[in-house]
Amino acid sequence: MSAVVPTPTRAAEVRPAGKEPRRPVHTVIGVLIVAFMLFPLYWMVNVSLQPAGNAVATPWLPFDLTLRGYTTAISEQGRNLVTSLLISLGSVVFSLVIATPAAYAMAHFKFGRWATVILFGILVTQMVPGIVVANALYSAYTDLGLLNTMGGLILADSAAGIPFSIILMRAFMGSIPASVVEAAYVDGAGPVRAFFSIVLPMSRNALITAGLFTFLFAWGDFLFALTLTTTADLRPITLGLYTYVGSFVSDWSPIMATAVLSSLPAIALLVLAQRYVAAGVTGGAVKS
């Protein structure tokens, strides 16, 4: 009797269970979608590197490159960039100082049915249109003398960052086992020390995520900047771009260079903190 020799299985035929083979057409479609979404960014960079002229007449490929637009943008809008940076960082610090202990209290202290009422009130603040808040703040700031002040803009931008940070960090801190905090109490730590030594280090991802989104809220704010500033002494970059673009613009290179410079902080932060953001957003989804 002749022995039956098993036919060797080709490696290409052995696939992990549940995995579909990657089809080239899917890759091509994905690349086309990404290229379509990134084209405005490419065109912005392309125009910013052109010597001068109308954006419509800009060549598709930047052959004659110059940094004149960036030099002009830094000289004319550099102060506005620094103003936006200070306002955004101030909003991050103020929002986290207020939202972090509030989120911890709502996650670990017993409020009974009032916890649901408080959380509902925080959610309602996220639904109020920004123009309503801006008009109310304008009247209040006029009486308090906070118009055209950096502190006033930090408070206004924190109005969006604080509720979001409380909701995000409450979900994350609620997933921290109560036994961990109780163990700190047994070792002699009080509520304040347990908060700073145990809860905050464990909530690093949520803190970074909340701080990043608060920074983006403040950096991209236009409504509060337009409503609460009436002079050119204090002008964030969003308002600087708005006043930079006139009705008869013939040289778009400095404008696009300003737009590129104003996009760099947000892009850099998102790239550096993306793994913390992913962990911070999903951290409270599963309870330990």
From TrEMBL:
Alphabetized PROSITE patterns for the sequence: ABC_TM1 (PS50928)
Domain ABC transmembrane type-1, residue spans: 81-273
InterPro entries documented for this protein: BP-dep_ABC_trans_perm, MetI-like, MetI-like_sf
Record's GO cellular component terms: plasma membrane
Presence of the UniProt keyword Membrane in the record: yes
Topology of the protein relative to the lipid bilayer: Multi-pass membrane protein
Keywords carried by this UniProt record: Cell membrane, Membrane, Transmembrane, Transmembrane helix, Transport
Top-level division of the source organism's lineage: Bacteria
Record-annotated membrane-spanning stretches: 25-45, 85-107, 114-138, 150-169, 206-232, 252-273
Pfam families: BPD_transp_1 (PF00528)
Cell location: Cell membrane
One BP annotation, GO: transmembrane transport
Record family assignment: Belongs to the binding-protein-dependent transport system permease family.
Name the record gives this protein: Binding-protein-dependent transport systems inner membrane component
Organism from which the protein derives: Kineococcus radiotolerans (strain ATCC BAA-149 / DSM 14245 / SRS30216)
